[in-house]
Design brief:
- This protein has a six-stranded mixed beta sheet, sandwiched between helices. Strands 2-1-4-5 form a four-stranded antiparallel beta sheet, with helices on one face. The chain has a two-stranded parallel sheet with strand order 7-8.
- It has two domains: 289 residues, ABC transporter type 1, transmembrane domain (ABC transporter transmembrane region fold, Up-down Bundle), CATH 1.20.1560.10; 132 residues, P-loop containing nucleotide triphosphate hydrolases (Rossmann fold).
- By secondary structure, it is α/β, with parallel strands linked by helices.
- The chain has 19 helices and twelve strands.
């Protein structure tokens, strides 16, 4: 398809020269016929060829337009898919950096149009060069100075395109963060997950004003730049008009000297064609320079190193034997200096439920990210069945880990897919989803309008919104959908009632036999049944043991448990009163 467009453009570029040549010959032949009083056959032949070339040029333009429209869609789709593929290949640490979001903003803002415009302007240059050389060849034969003068007169416009192309790119490059902020503010006002607070706190006017301020700032700068560019473009255009006028005067004088009216008509047409061709070439080159700058942002994003987390080659065993061991593991998030974890050591055997408790920011969720290899330890190592975790194939590792994050995703899709996204090999397997939902205590699915096929959320037609607790049970079902030997549950009962919580953990004990279950929670009613509880404080394990042992020790765990229990007792006492 690309080659077809190039060929069509090339032959279309030859058309102006043919039109001019046979216009000149037709007029010359007609003038000769008038002088002799007899109709010359060359006049009919030239006129016929002129009509044929005009019709051919029109047909080529129609075909070219059709093929280009198809190519635009294909190219835009490919670039957007490339961006999505790249984004999915990046690791978590990329998306916890504002630099990545700025790069993504710059890449996506022009992805839909710039690649195609680059191609179109390249074709414009090709067409312009073809027309320019073919018509200039005629013009040089008639009057070379006119051709040279016309080409040189287009250079100021070319210089202006280059200069303001760089200015435009620099403006957009520096605006990436502000554009993201404006998009985020608009996002806050346009979806159901934020509208409750926006309405309750009356934030609408404030958010609109902030978006308007950003847009006004962009407009003021753009207005100034566009104004300066318009002045320069106008001066360059006036120069072209003046040069064209001089060229036509020279052509008239030359025609009067040699008495060739046809050549005069051809020269006047050639002046317009050369000037248009030269302008198209130089403006196209300027646009190509600007596109190159913008597409540099796209390719910079696509070239982002994605193999930060190196995959090993060792296969995950079908059945874990010794389990997971943390050996003096420390971790510091990239771009920060403070260690989140310091010399953490523990062992988790198959069949055990390991709970992590501690204050916010103690490092509990970070441990789950390390187990899933969303990050690698800064120092120390994690062992799986006696081998470093980094030696295992990362895709196999993540497929054997079922995870429900604290900030789990609410997919605007069917219940079936919401569950089996956790086991994509069973995407359409209704038995797998039904079993997982039963394990998670999500019995409410049977009451939904279309059962497993009910679309969840509010963003699409015929969808059904769930409560927070129901969404959480769907997320837990997703974690339990696969053949997971390691299960990570981060605050799994934060949004469920106590009855559901008790049911869930009874079932967890049953369904996770032989698997390692890691549990992160602030609710001690959740963690007290764990086989081993690790108490984290400032990134250190300060206590370890089961509930009974830790209570007898009277340390951090016992203190936090007593505080939470006291709260429940106060509520119960007040209720009785």
């Amino acid at each position: 398809m690309t080659i077809a467009v190039i060929l069509l453009t090339f032959f279309s570029g030859l058309a102006p020269a043919g039109v001019i040549l046979f216009t000149e010959r037709t007029i010359t032949a007609v003038a000769g016929s008038l002088d002799s009083g007899e109709l010359q056959s060359t006049a009919i032949t030239s006129a016929s060829l002129l009509i044929a070339i005009t019709m051919a040029a029109f047909t080529l333009n129609i075909i070219d337009s059709y093929v280009q429209s198809l190519l635009q869609v294909k190219l835009s789709n490919k670039i957007n898919l490339d961006i999505v593929r790249k984004a999915t290949s990046l690791e978590l640490q990329h998306f916890e950096s504002s630099t990545t979001y700025d790069s993504l903003q710059r890449a996506t803002s022009e992805a839909g149009s710039r690649p195609y415009q680059l191609f179109v302007d390249a074709l414009r240059v090709l067409s312009g060069l073809t027309s320019l050389f073919s018509v200039s060849a005629l013009l040089f034969a008639w009057n070379p100075w006119i051709a040279i003068l016309l080409i040189v007169s287009c250079l100021p416009a070319f210089a202006a395109e280059i200069f303001y192309g760089r200015v435009t790119w620099k403006l957009e490059h520096d605006r990436a963060a502000k554009r993201r902020w404006a998009s985020y503010l608009q996002f806050l006002t346009t979806n159901d997950r934020n509208v409750k607070e926006v309405k309750s706190f009356g934030l609408g006017r404030l958010l609109i004003q902030r978006v308007a301020d950003i847009q006004r700032g962009f407009y003021d700068v753009d207005k100034s730049v566009e104004g300066r560019q318009a002045k320069v473009t106008a001066l360059a255009g006036l120069l072209n008009v003046a040069v064209s006028g001089v060229a036509i005067i020279i052509a008239v004088r030359s025609a009067l000297e040699i008495g060739n009216v046809g050549q005069l008509a051809g020269t006047i047409a050639a002046v317009t064609a050369v000037q248009s061709g030269a302008s198209g070439v130089f403006v196209g080159l300027g646009q190509l320079f600007e596109h190159k700058l913008f597409l540099g942002e796209l390719f910079s994003f696509l070239d982002t190193p994605h193999d930060v987390i190196k995959s090993g080659t060792r296969s995950i065993p079908r059945e874990l034997k010794s389990g997971i061991t943390f050996e003096n593991v420390s971790f510091t998030y990239p771009g920060t200096d403070k260690a989140v974890l310091s010399n953490i050591s523990f062992t988790a055997a198959p069949g055990e439920v390991i709970a992590f408790v501690g204050r916010n920011g103690a490092g509990k969720s970070t441990i789950s990210k390390l187990i899933n290899r969303l990050y690698d330890p800064t120092s120390g190592r994690i062992m799986l069945d006696g081998h470093p975790l980094a030696e295992y194939d990362i895709s196999q590792l993540r497929s054997t880990v079922g995870v429900a994050f604290q900030d789990f995703v609410q997919y605007e899709s069917s219940v079936q897919e919401n569950v089996t996204y956790g086991a994509v090999n069973y995407l359409d397997d209704r038995v797998v989803s039904a079993v997982a939902l039963n394990r998670a205590g999500a019995d409410f699915v049977d009451e939904l309008p279309s059962g497993l096929e009910t679309r969840l959320g509010r963003w699409f037609e015929d969808s059904h919104q769930l409560s927070g607790g129901q969404w959480q049970r769907v997320a837990i079902a997703r974690a339990l959908a696969g053949d997971s030997q390691i299960i990570l549950l981060d605050e799994p009962t934060a949004a469920v009632d106590s009855e559901t919580e008790a049911l869930l953990f009874r079932r967890l004990r049953e369904v996770t036999q032989g698997a390692i279950c890691f549990l992160i929670s602030h609710r001690f009613s959740t963690v007290r049944a764990a086989d081993k509880i690790l108490v984290l404080e400032n990134g250190n394990v300060v206590e370890m043991g089961d509930h009974r042992t830790l209570m007898n020790n009277g340390g951090h765990y016992a203190s936090m448990f007593a505080i939470q229990a006291e709260g429940y007792q106060d509520v119960e006492t007040n209720t009785r009163k």
